[in-house]
């Protein structure tokens, strides 16, 4: 066993990785009287017409449509929509099981979210407390709790920044002095090589590639519902974006369950050897 516990982080995208579809589609968009197809089509149109980041466009449209339909979009109301999320198989039971497995291996395992989805909704889910930090797109609120401006918009390239924040132990989005300050690898709370990133699509590619380059591990998951999702995930593997591909089923003994346990074993064994040979 290692002389001291090994710090390992599992970092997740949310939509399409732990939860089925986009979190806004469960109840928020239907409450606006819109179909998901129409909503995302309008997002695309706004993006092109205004040379706009797509994440900012969807955040803008959510609030504009809520005002138009007189649907409350106060922070506590947005958060409530997280309660209607639909998880993939085994997600709610997975964390306790993998945490215990890690503990038995003398691993300090922590979980993080890096998502383009709506932070307030993710914070309203039943699994929100499982994460040490949730980095996701969020709003700035006025004194009455009403959104007045995007506070944070996380897109496919900015996701990489938050891997560095986890690596350096910076659990906020505003501390830029610490993120840019040189810190020797030995003083960083979680080494990149001890990080595992789990995502499902194109928005995760930069994070996967960066982590692979740094010696970490990336896993592409796919919804078991469609053949197309599996093919897209396999492309990530074939193009060296992901190290593993697995169905988004987090049940005990599932493919991803076995992959994660194998990776935890490898990291723990490597850390043990390094500690005893110093």
TrEMBL record:
It holds the Pfam family HAD. This is Phosphoserine phosphatase. InterPro entries: HAD-like_sf (IPR036412), HAD_sf (IPR023214).
